[in-house]
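quick one: nicotinamide-adenine-dinucleotide bound model?
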Amino acid sequence: MCRKEYRVGIIGGGLMGKEFASAAARWCHILEDVPVPVVAGISDPSTEARAWFEQFPSVEYSVEDYHELLDKEDIDVIYCAIPHNMHAQVYTDIIRAKKHFMGEKPFGMDYAANREIMKAVGENPDVFVRCSSQHPFYPACQELIRWIRGGKLGKIIEVKSGFCHSSDLDLTKPVNWKRIVQVNGEYGCMGDLGIHTMHVPFHLGYKPKNVYAQLSNVVKERPDGKGGIAPCLTWDNATLICDSRDQNGNTFPIYFETKRMAPASTNRWYVEVYGVDCSVKFSTDDANGFWYTQNYGKEQAWCRVNIGYKPEFQTITGSIFEFGFTDTVQQMWVSFFKELEGEKVEFGCFRPEETRLAHLLQTAALASDREKRVICLADFEAEL
Ligand SMILES: NC(=O)c1ccc[n+]([C@@H]2O[C@H](COP(=O)([O-])OP(=O)(O)OC[C@H]3O[C@@H](n4cnc5c(N)ncnc54)[C@H](O)[C@@H]3O)[C@@H](O)[C@H]2O)c1
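yep, here:
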């Protein structure tokens, strides 16, 4: 198979920049007729960060200043994974440079930053833009989505969607940029984890109408990594309760939970949808398990199917094997390139207009916690 190639530049060579480069390096894994991403450039002010990327023979450009990558005519796509306070400037520069673009969440540090990015998106309709969120690409989660779309659940009772970490329970963990308000943003844990929890509900059409939020900052100081102590003022945990409506106009609650202080949750991303006829759930704690209820007389029993390695996009791996985090990253990128080519995909990446709703919800959540009241999103948006 002779596949088309897209030359990709990476801006930000940290944790996520490396994950993409690794996914691209094993593209032979993918059996679908989808373009091949060739990592042609890396931009990061850190020479140490760039050194890791320089091991790839395809990397022709290794630069400190990202503008140099944007000036290259032979770079078609940019993936940008940098701290949140830089999203507005760098993302708008990328879009205006007419590079197709995958940006990391939260897609702007706050509502104003997201608005700037959305303005650039609106002015450049020929540029294909998506926001990174890989967890829904677990095959067991895709099965959950199929069951919901297939109408198996009946009337929806409620939806719970969360992302919980526990590493911050280690009080000796030094503060980093993700725990500094000026760099990570006022959203705190919501900015880091929120879009991950919204992807499945939003794509299913479950949009929040209002929000009541409970935010907590459990640990207010941390080691600064240099022998001292630094303030840690970002929100650690957030619980958002929203009203939503299904396609028949029935109202049901959605709970969005994003927590950095969640005991025993290493990296637990989950979605649970409860219906009158049937309920379904998925959690990364049991990444191959798809759970659904079956009626047992007047009772219900949870049943588990071991889904195995059956992703949306075909790969070389046998279906009996286990699927993991790095596979979700690669599947998300296949989805990106398919959509970029104009093909229809079953689920798809998080869309720019969905980031706008995510920011509205998170900004309203800050106000809700401050004022201890339910906030109607439509009224709140009209005042922004
Ligand atoms: N999708 C996910 O699961 C996931 C997971 C973690 C982080 N993220 C997101 O990815 C983004 C980056 O997070 P990370 O964990 O990779 O951070 P990181 O700290 O590991 O890496 C950030 C990199 O950006 C570089 N950088 C800083 N300024 C730059 C500039 N002007 N030009 C180019 N590079 C610059 C830094 O030197 C660093 O190497 C954030 O938006 C974060 O929310 C997503």
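The mean pLDDT is 97.
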